[in-house]
């Protein structure tokens, strides 16, 4: 079973932006104010609510951090970003990281729209700036923004070629995050990545896939060039399933802005034989996929794959 199975079901701006999901636009993640030696830090784990002062690391990306005073953080289910909030104030920081990056990677990612969910996107405003190795970009929220939030982001390329990004959201009349975000991104420490495949490299030994997935939700997330995909297979314990596919797209150019979204859903019955999962849809058609367990180097963990796509094994909130 994935290490992500027990995570909170929000990567998201749910407290700030209803029904929003964190943008999977970038790879892996991390956040905080780094101070202590890497060996003194604990490897970050999904689903854990980290308190102020927690010392953490992500060895596969060579990142070291400490949760700052008066802040809490969590890596939610199916997410590639750390979500952090202060106590007693309305604000949120979303921190992501990507290995094997370049300055061009940082500039390109920060200059393009970021999809938060099917109803909310971030679009760049003005030109990307850079000072002392810190990139800065202002954004406007397009779509669902009931709290009239403003958005901005910082980016930095580490000496180990890991790119770090911080998206900041707060009310229009508040000016907390510009200083906090800059102080954070300047303090993060970069070390040589230490990703390695465990000795027991065969991740498919003795897996009872029916037991692992019965009553669970398989979720696939992807964002690329403004397109956000969120597919879910809700596998009920009674052998029925509910499938949903939510896509959204946003683009921006010098002439016009465009955004749109689409949704589809279906249901039927499912069963697993060995490593094969078969879906019998209510319209009479069938689909069959191969299940496998593979090591994901960027995360330093094992993951569930449906054919060649990674799907997260999450808590089922649709059916038992």
Structure description:
There is one protein chain. This protein is mainly beta and 320 residues long. It has two domains: 38-190, Protein Transport Mog1p, Chain A (3-Layer(aba) Sandwich), CATH 3.40.1000; 209-315, Lipocalin (Beta Barrel). Helix content is 8%, strand content 47%. It contains three helices and 20 strands. The strands form three sheets. The protein has an eight-stranded antiparallel beta sheet. An eight-stranded antiparallel beta barrel has the order 13-14-15-16-17-18-19-20. The protein has a four-stranded mixed beta sheet with strand order 1-2-3-12, with no helix packed on it. The longest helix has 11 residues, at 177-187. The radius of gyration is 20 Å and the shape is globular. The two termini are 18 Å apart.
Number of strand segments: 20
User: Helix tally?
Assistant: 3
Tally of domains = 2
Looking at the overall shape, the CATH architecture of the largest domain is 3-Layer(aba) Sandwich
Q: Major sheet: size, sense and barrel closure?
A: 8 strands, antiparallel
Query: Helical amount among residues, as a percent range?
Result: under 10%
Radius of gyration: 20 Å
Q: State the distance separating the first and last CA atoms.
A: 18 Å
Shape: globular
**Secondary-structure content class:** mainly beta
Topology (SSEs and partners):
Elements: E1 42-43, E2 55-58, E3 63-66, E4 71-74, E5 82-86, E6 92-98, H1 103-110, E7 114-117, E8 120-131, E9 134-143, E10 149-157, E11 163-171, H2 177-187, E12 189-190, H3 209-213, E13 216-224, E14 227-235, E15 240-252, E16 257-273, E17 276-281, E18 286-296, E19 301-306, E20 309-315
Parallel strand pairs: 1-2
Antiparallel strand pairs: 2-3, 3-12, 4-5, 5-6, 6-11, 7-8, 8-9, 9-10, 10-11, 13-14, 13-20, 14-15, 15-16, 16-17, 17-18, 18-19, 19-20
């Amino acid at each position: 079973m994935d290490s992500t199975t027990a995570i909170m079901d929000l990567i998201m701006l749910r407290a700030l932006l209803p029904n929003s999901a964190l943008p999977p636009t970038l790879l892996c993640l991390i956040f905080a104010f780094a101070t202590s030696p890497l060996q003194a830090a604990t490897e970050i784990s999904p689903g854990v609510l980290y308190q102020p002062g927690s010392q953490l690391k992500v060895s596969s990306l060579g990142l070291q951090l400490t949760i700052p005073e008066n802040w809490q953080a969590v890596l939610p289910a199916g997410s590639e970003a750390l979500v952090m909030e202060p106590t007693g104030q309305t604000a949120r920081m979303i921190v992501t990281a990507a290995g094997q990056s370049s300055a061009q990677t940082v500039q390109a990612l920060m200059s393009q729209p970021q999809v938060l969910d099917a109803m909310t996107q971030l679009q760049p405003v003005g030109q990307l700036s850079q000072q002392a190795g810190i990139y800065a970009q202002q954004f406007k929220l397009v779509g669902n923004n009931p709290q009239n939030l403003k958005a901005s982001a910082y980016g930095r390329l580490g000496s180990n070629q890991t790119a770090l990004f911080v998206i900041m959201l707060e009310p229009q009349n508040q000016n907390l995050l510009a200083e906090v975000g800059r102080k954070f991104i300047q303090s993060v420490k970069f070390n040589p990545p230490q990703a390695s495949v465990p000795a027991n490299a065969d991740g498919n030994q003795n897996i009872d896939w029916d037991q692992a997935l019965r009553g669970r939700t398989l979720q696939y997330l992807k964002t690329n060039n403004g397109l956000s995909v969120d597919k879910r297979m809700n596998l009920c314990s009674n052998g029925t399933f509910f499938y949903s596919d939510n896509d959204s797209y946003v683009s921006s150019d010098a002439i016009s802005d465009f955004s749109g979204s689409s949704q589809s859903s279906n249901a039927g019955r499912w069963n697993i034989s060995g490593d094969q999962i078969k879906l019998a849809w209510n319209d009479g058609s069938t689909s069959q996929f191969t299940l496998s367990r593979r090591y994901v180097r960027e995360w330093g963990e094992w993951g569930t794959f449906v054919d060649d796509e990674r799907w997260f094994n999450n808590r089922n909130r649709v059916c038992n």
